[in-house]
């Protein structure tokens, strides 16, 4: 299929940049109507561009359904081959224009509630020293909102739960965190682990689905033949922790988000068996929009800060069991 498409191009077909950008947007949005809203271009015009592109490559790129548009095999091949080069071309133009300019500008970052506050604070500190011209705006939300904002362009970068192949974004793997049970001190037996079957007997405070750590633990529970039903359904990491600190319930979170409270003796942490249960934290940006120099500077700084936290032990990734 790849060779066949390349042969079509070799016979003199010309791919227009605008058509390729439209194609990527429709592929990401899954429908002409949503792509029209994002690009602010009339639906008939977008449909014509897609049809012209299909005529150029000599293959149907989408399967049309009532609910939307799905890439065909040929469409997936084309998307895989052009996303990277198009992004590089756009970025090259921006880099040439800004070679002589000091790195500055506004960057909007989406952060998961479970990302340690220490990372955000350190990020602001590093940026204020190295890149004083960058204005960083941080929005906190769960993955479902961050994905929507990244697709619409409301944010430039965001943390997500991996793997990266689950999204049509450009992503960097940051760290794999163990998901642990956090509890009020002295409530449970003095054990450093708990089986997922026993979680069903505890008063749990958990967010509604979809929520990365909960989905992972729910999967473990189903494999063990049990269903986890939280006593308190709360879509707030802060409230879930406060409930545990008040002795009212237990919760499930990545260890990095509750490690400091455990180190202070305010919470107890336990490994969830069979495990360890883990989640991959990634840093993503949209392949539809080229990164500015300011966005890349923030991205690089996040990676450096996170590596430093791993090195000095302020970011823990796993529960050490004796």
Could you explain the architecture of this structure?
Helix content is 46%, strand content 21%. With 322 residues, the protein is of the alpha/beta class. The protein folds into two domains: 2-97, Winged helix-like DNA-binding domain superfamily/Winged helix DNA-binding domain (Arc Repressor Mutant, subunit A, Orthogonal Bundle); 103-322, D-Maltodextrin-Binding Protein, domain 2 (3-Layer(aba) Sandwich), CATH 3.40.190.290. The relative contact order is 0.15. The model is unreliable at 1-12 (pLDDT under 50).
Distance between the termini: 54 Å
Strand pairing plus helix content: what structural class? Answer: alpha/beta
Q: What Rg do the Cα atoms give?
A: 23 Å
Mean pLDDT: 84
Instruction: Classify the beta-strand content into a percent band.
Output: 15-25%
Which parts are unreliable, with pLDDT below 50 for 5 consecutive residues or more? 1-12
Secondary-structure element string: HHHHEEHEHEHEEEHEHEHEHEEH
Quickly name the level 1 CATH class of the largest domain: Alpha Beta
What is the total domain count?
2
Task: Explain briefly what this protein structure is.
Helices cover 46% and strands 21% of the residues.
List keywords for this structure.
46% helix, 8-stranded mixed sheet, disordered N terminus, two-stranded antiparallel ribbon, 322 residues, 2 domains, D-Maltodextrin-Binding Protein, domain 2, globular, Arc Repressor Mutant, subunit A
């Amino acid at each position: 299929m790849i060779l066949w498409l390349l042969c079509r191009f070799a016979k003199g077909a010309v791919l227009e940049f605008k058509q390729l950008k439209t194609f990527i947007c429709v592929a990401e949005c899954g429908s002409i109507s949503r792509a029209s809203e994002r690009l602010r271009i009339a639906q008939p015009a977008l449909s014509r561009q897609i049809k012209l592109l299909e005529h150029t490559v000599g293959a149907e790129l989408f399967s049309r359904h009532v609910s939307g548009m799905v890439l065909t095999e040929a469409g997936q091949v084309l998307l895989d081959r052009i996303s990277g080069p198009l992004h590089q071309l756009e970025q090259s133009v921006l880099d040439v224009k800004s070679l002589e300019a000091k790195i500055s500008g506004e960057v909007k970052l989406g952060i998961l509630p479970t990302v340690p506050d220490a990372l955000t604070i350190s990020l602001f500190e590093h940026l204020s020293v190295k890149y004083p011209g960058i204005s960083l705006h941080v929005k906190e939300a769960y993955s479902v909102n961050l994905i929507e904002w990244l697709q619409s362009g409301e944010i430039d970068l965001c943390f997500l739960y991996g793997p990266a192949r689950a999204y049509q974004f450009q992503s960097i793997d940051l760290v794999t965190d163990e998901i642990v049970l956090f509890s009020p001190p002295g409530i449970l037996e003095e054990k450093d682990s708990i089986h997922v079957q026993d979680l069903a007997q505890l008063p749990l405070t958990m967010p509604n689905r979809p929520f990365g750590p909960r989905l992972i633990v729910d999967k473990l529970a189903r494999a063990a033949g049990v269903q986890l039903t939280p006593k308190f359904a709360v879509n707030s990491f802060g409230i879930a922790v406060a409930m545990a600190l008040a002795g009212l319930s237990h919760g499930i979170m990545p260890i990095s988000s509750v490690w400091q409270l455990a180190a202070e003796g305010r919470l107890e942490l336990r490994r969830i068996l069979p495990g360890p249960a883990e989640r991959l934290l990634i840093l993503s940006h949209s392949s539809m929009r080229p990164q500015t120099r300011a966005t890349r500077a923030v991205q690089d700084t996040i990676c450096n800060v996170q590596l430093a936290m791993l090195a000095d032990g302020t970011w823990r990734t796993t529960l050490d069991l004796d």
